[in-house]
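User: Here's a protein and a ligand (cytidine-5'-monophosphate). What would the complex look like?
Assistant: Let me lay out the input and then the predicted complex.
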Amino acid sequence: MTCRAPAKINLSLQITGRRQDGFHELVSIMQTVGLWDELEIRPAPSFQFRCSQPTLTHGNLVERAARLLADETHASRASDIYLKKSIPVGAGLGGGSSDAAAALVGLSRCWNIPVGCERLRTLATNLGSDVPYFLYGGTALVEGRGEHVTPLPPMETVWWLLVNPGFTVSTADVFNELTPREWSSGEQTRQMAHQLNAAASPGPNNLQPALFRLYPAAERCYRAVAAVAPGATFVTGSGPTVCAGFRTRGEAENAAAELQPHSYWTAIAPTYRPEEGATPCA
Ligand code: C5P
């Protein structure tokens, strides 16, 4: 069985406060895009996990997802899992979280244990704040710590240029750098959820100033992309990946070509809705 684990972008991300447990309350619009990791799952006599990037094998969220699901359902963990990474790591694209959600869904099928959306959501929340969203995919309003997901009508196809400056960012560090004066009400994001379209300019990202203070190279990347896609450029999640939306693939390719001298990692991916069955909560 092969499962796709798509990347996400945050079309808007507002932080509304800090909780007792240290996590932050957020309001965000998330969208899956056509760039994905692949999880190959095969029945096997014992548990084995391998990754196309061997440094990511130890402590991978996929392995934690498998252990959690097996513990919760008293299933045997026996299976051979191979994770083929394509999504940059520590990039704000939710790759690790998407891999974890795909593991929960794929393994529950492979082990033949019917686990409903509600139970999967609980397990997903235990694995990470962005994991529940990937049980829905598509366009969604995400609130709370990340566990409250409201699907939105699919947005029209936009071609996203993704630009990664080639270093990883610690999400925890960016959240720690955030100050209360950078919090906001979340209203702008809730309003935006009613009128999503390709022509809309990107929403706010309250993590962006903290990211730029900690990683000046992320701001340089943002400025380079904004120079070729004025009015359309934004940082996804805690960064450092910078995105810009275009109506056609050709326009996105032209912008990518202009960025070539910077030697950044780039990808062009359309708005993506996971195939039927891949997202049990959708
Ligand atoms: O949940 P996850 O492990 O992905 O979060 C990584 C870090 O990001 C957390 O340890 C926390 O510092 C920060 N975070 C937060 N509030 C959220 C999500 C993440 O403070 N809603």
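Summary: The longest strand covers residues 24-42.
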